[in-house]
Amino acid sequence: MSSTTNDWEKENASQKNKMFKHNPIRFVFAIGMLHILVSIALSLYALYLYIVHGHVSTLILVVLMIWLVGASVIISLGYIGKDISKHIYRVFDKDGHL
Question: pTM of this prediction?
Fold first, then answer.
């Protein structure tokens, strides 16, 4: 009976190794943070243009808004994915049904 239990434990451990990993979610979150940094740099450039030249191109403002909204969506996807992965790990650690 102990060999059956050991086989089941090995199979269960291999299933856990094949399960969802956090690395893609961390990558999505890092890409979102990179977008935030780029949009901050662009907003500083737009502020510089406004102070020095007195006007800012509309294209710069549109791109800035798109990057800010896109970055917030990407970061929120990273947080949601991390939360879902915690629930997945919690469910698969149980011995019974879902």
Answer: 0.62
Give CA 6 to chain center in angstroms. Answer: 36
Is the pLDDT score of 91 beyond 50?
yes
Give start and end residues of each alpha helix (H) in the chain: 2-18, 23-53, 58-92
Residue 43 identity (one-letter amino acid): S
Are 47 and 41 within 8 A, CB to CB? no
Phi, psi at residue 95, to the nearest 5°? -95, -15
Instruction: Quote the tokens at residue 48.
Output: 């510089």
- Half-sphere exposure of residue 46, counting CA atoms within 13 Å on the CB side? 16
Q: Which residue has the tokens 């149980």?
A: 94
Q: What is the pLDDT of residues 11-37, one digit of tens each?
A: 555 555 555 566 777 888 888 889 899
Question: What does the pLDDT look like over 60-82, one tens digit per residue?
Answer: 889 889 988 988 898 888 888 88
Residue 43's nearest CA partner among 70, 63, 24 is 63
